[in-house]
Amino acid sequence: MKEAEFSYACFDRLENKVLYAILRLRSEVFVVEQNCVFLDIDDKDQQSHHLTGWVNEKLAAYARIVPAGVAYDYNSIGRVVTSPSFRGTGLGRELLEKSIQYCYALHGVSPIKIGGQLYLQQFYESFGFKQTSEVYLEDGIAHIEMMLYP
Question: Which residues pair with 7 in a beta bridge?
């Protein structure tokens, strides 16, 4: 696999074709693949920064960096997703590493809170995240809240 090229931008600087690719990937995975009818466009995108990973001009990975006060009292990383055609390549690990680094660069080195799908708990723990809530259902999928303390 060719190495992914990562870029990031605030919402107002996203090109139309990039925003389309982001929304398409999120819909492909979070709505269609996971068979979950929910409103992905949740009015947090406009206040967030968007990290995209491209391979051969195809959006392969994406994450949203959300400032404190929008989703949680802490800075947050959300909508973490790797395209199905790029899973198992290590791209998800690279995406989360870059997401954490970018969150720190944007907002300073401070705690990061996530609401992660339960089946990814060990993945997030491998980066130092710790479970901070009981399991809860969000849109019919088991989730837990987790924190990363620098």
Answer: 52
